[in-house]
Amino acid sequence: MKKTNPFKFGSVVEEPYFTDRTTEQAEIEMVLSSANHLILISPRRYGKTSLIKKVVSSLDRPLIFLDLQLITDLNDFASQILRRVHRVFPLERLRSFFRNFRVTPTITLNPITNEIDVSFLSNSNQVLLLEDVFNLLDNLGSSNKKPIVVLDEFQDIKRLGTDTEKHLRAIIQHHQNINYVFMGSIESMMRQIFEEKRSPFYHFGQLMPLGKIPFSDFKNYIKEGFSDKTNDADTLAEIILTITHCQPYYTQQLAYTVWNRWDHQMSENELVEAAVEYLIQIHDNDYHRIWQNQNQTDKKILIQISRHHEQMLSQANLQKMGFSSASTLYSGLKRLSQQGYIIKDKANYQIDDPFFKSWILRKREE
Ligand SMILES: Nc1ncnc2c1ncn2[C@@H]1O[C@H](COP(=O)(O)OP(=O)(O)O)[C@@H](O)[C@H]1O
Ligand SMILES: [Mg+2]
To answer: Which of 123, 227, 237, 294 could connect to 222 by a Cys-Cys bridge, CB 3.0–4.6 Å?
Structure first.
């Protein structure tokens, strides 16, 4: 009998909460064992971070992982990289390199956490800083244990000044001892960075879009989680996946909620319905806030996509539903995609959060 909930959502998942992704793991390993870099793109919460951490943990190579969303400027960028370098390389080893830095970092060691705090004078030349720190990474690497440097939410590089991409690319293009992994959740911006000819990072590595988890794998995973709750875990898993469309995070969240609120009196359908109801309720405030922040066009788009969730909606389909101008529709779709509320799957649009979709439909009926 499982005593603890077998489903997990929100943070990075490892075994036993991790399923499938075998071909993706093999492909990533292949890139990382070559001299190439990887560009991993998917909407938020599809499992990029979990996947890359899983692959790297099996490799016995130093990992430097930095989420650019948290970075405020280039000075901060350089400091945060150094802090993470220190987590995998001892200070002794770093010291000789620091001597060659053109901008000397001030380093304080916290004796309790054994973490370092790094700062550079605020008037330092930021490009030199970045250069020194990234070149340190390359110098630390050796050909048999190349560090893997993961820059998560890489599209945020655009926030760090207009020339940052250009500078960063100029620095790291010479690196022989590192595999870089660039991950991002805003597909349009990631493609702009890596697929547009004029962009400094044009074709910088192997592009890999990460999709949802295939229905049959996800179904087996969910069935297993419910195996001692019901004899009909098969049906239950199918109902859950029909609602979440195999989106990894929402699927785990719904399964988790159904498991937690299990009631032997209820049928599989009723259990899932009650769980969805519960999730809509606890997110009611968030959804209200999101809704209020949308302009009329975007609200209209969200409603149409919600209503037609089961059939695929392309921009052309949407156009027929009363949008006076194609350009208004286009910019609305772009805005909503960038904010992550809608997902473009091939040429068709879906609402990312299935419970937000239900919330919208419900509000319309009230
Ligand atoms: N391989 C997987 N198997 C099962 N669930 C997964 C898997 N990958 C991701 N998830 C679910 O999605 C959630 C978000 O994963 P995460 O790796 O943080 O995604 P991302 O980095 O793309 O935002 C996890 O907490 C988990 O619930
Ligand atoms: Mg992530």
So the answer is: 237
Instruction: Assess whether the previous peptide bond of 111 is cis (omega < 30° from 0).
Output: no
Nearest CA to ligand 1 atom 15: 47
Nearest residue by C-alpha to atom 16 in ligand 1: 47
On whether both 244 and 164 belong to a single domain, the answer is: no
Q: Is residue 177 within 8 Å of 142, Cβ to Cβ?
A: yes
pLDDT at site 142: 78
**Contact call for residues 12 and 50 (beta carbons, < 8 A):** yes
Residue 28 domain-assigned?
A: yes
pLDDT of residue 310: 62
DSSP state of 105: P
- What is the CB < 6 Å shell around ligand 1? 8-13, 17-21, 42, 44-50, 213, 248-249, 252
160 near 126, Cβ under 8 Å? no
Task: Check whether residue 239 and residue 336 sit in a common domain.
Answer: no
303 and 221 housed in the same domain = no
Please give the residue range of the domain that contains residue 43: 22-209
Ligand 2 centroid to 152 CA: how many Å? 7
Residue 74 pLDDT: 93
Q: In terms of Cα–Cα distance, which of 333, 289, 295 is closest to 313?
A: 333
**pLDDT, position 122:** 78
Q: Do 275 and 232 belong to one domain?
A: yes
Burial of 185 (0-12, 13-18, 19+ CB in 10 A): buried
Same domain, yes or no: 76 and 134: yes
Ligand nearest to the CA of 220: 1
Average pLDDT along the chain, 366 residues, taken 10 residues at a time: 89 94 97 97 97 96 96 94 93 88 88 87 87 94 88 97 96 96 96 97 98 97 96 97 96 98 96 98 97 96 86 76 83 94 88 96 86
CA of 325 to the centre of ligand 1 (A): 37
Q: Determine, yes or no, domain membership for 264.
A: yes
Structural domains of the chain, count: 3
The Å distance, Cα 201 to ligand 1 centre, comes to 27
